[in-house]
């Protein structure tokens, strides 16, 4: 969009938030801006746009309600063994490493996210919902730019709490996380594999859904059974809700793994992410409370999750 007087109006191509730039305050070397709403970086329009560097634009118009605040993701599947928690933790660590302030919410009673990150919080999501802990005590800083709201066994009791809510289970997660989410660029919620009121509440809170699917026959069958469960919720959520299908445990040495991946590509197209290759190293890292981004070495797993972070952040320049 061309400049208007001493100002330029621009729109983030990723989240559609609009800004007005004061051209008098922009250095001649600047060519890119970073959106405060979603954290994505994009080029200024026009051939005469300033070059090389980054600025943060000020918003001029309020975004629609679903666009305000961070990007909200759920990682969900009603089967175990898909690499769901591994992906939630590693993707969150990758986004944090790339400079995005990220909140990881563990809504699974198994509560493995904390151990995978090597932290021991005093409480987490259950205690924040019940009011037993304030946000500053429930949240734990796990890495630079990465905060965790932990899960655990205490979440199991919240199913009754959810059922007893006069307004139903849907608002619980929104009411709990909305007051603390504004300072984050991304909120990633790892759901329980159980289809229960808390999981449904998570799915109403988020605006983007990532489903990890192991490249095995039984997983594909489970995926087909999971989609009908999502449909009633998806019809009530604005926009295209299912954004990412992530093939996990992909092994190019196994013909069946290749066939399943190609089948997903043929059916779901751009929704399918580049696969996460099978790696025993990931499990070893988790046992040590580390992610691939903590080790300081290049690996296939790190490259896979860097690619996923680039796709999720809509920024092909991350980690380059």
- Approximate helicity band: 25-40%
Could you tell me the CATH topology label of the largest domain: Rossmann fold
**Shape-level CATH architecture of the largest domain:** 3-Layer(aba) Sandwich
Distance between the termini: 28 Å
Strand content: 15-25%
Gross geometry: globular
Descriptive overview:
Helix 1 (84-97) packs across helix 11. This protein starts with 6 loop residues before the first strand and ends in a 7-residue tail after the last helix. The strands form 3 sheets. The chain has a 7-stranded mixed β-sheet with strand order 9-10-8-11-7-12-13, sandwiched between helices. A 3-stranded antiparallel β-sheet has the order 1-2-6, with no helix packed on it. The chain has helices at 84-97, 112-117, 125-130, 135-138, 158-164, 171-177, 197-205, 217-234, 255-268, 280-287, 300-313, and strands at 7-11, 18-22, 32-34, 41-43, 54-56, 58-59, 71-75, 102-107, 139-143, 146-149, 186-191, 208-214, 242-248. The radius of gyration is 20 Å and the shape is globular. The model is unreliable at 1-5, 47-67 and 165-169 (pLDDT under 50). By secondary structure, it is an alpha/beta fold. The chain has 2 domains: 7-59; 69-313, Rossmann fold, CATH 3.40.50.300.
